[in-house]
Amino acid sequence: MTNTNTNLKTVFSNDLCSITLRKDNTFYGADKTDFYNEPRMYTENTRSFKKGLALLEKNFSDSTTMYQVARMLDEVGLKAHTYCAVN
Fold first, then answer.
1. Treating both helix axes as pointing N-terminal to C-terminal, what angle do 66-75 and 49-59 enclose, rounded to 10 degrees?
2. Sign of the four-CA dihedral 33, 61, 7, 72
């Protein structure tokens, strides 16, 4: 598991997924296990951004999947959307 802080973004990453925190305080995620469909995730809300960030900092681990992150962000009201990038 990696939590890398830079001036531009923070990334949570493991062998299963990567989650990027964008400058506009939204989350963007990519599944690393499904190369045929390339699942992705994003949030549109920013109201609960700090709650979502705190939740990921506490719960993101080597076994966390992109879909688990989406559910966690839904729990705090960030309304995560998933889609297949191949379509």
1. 140
2. positive
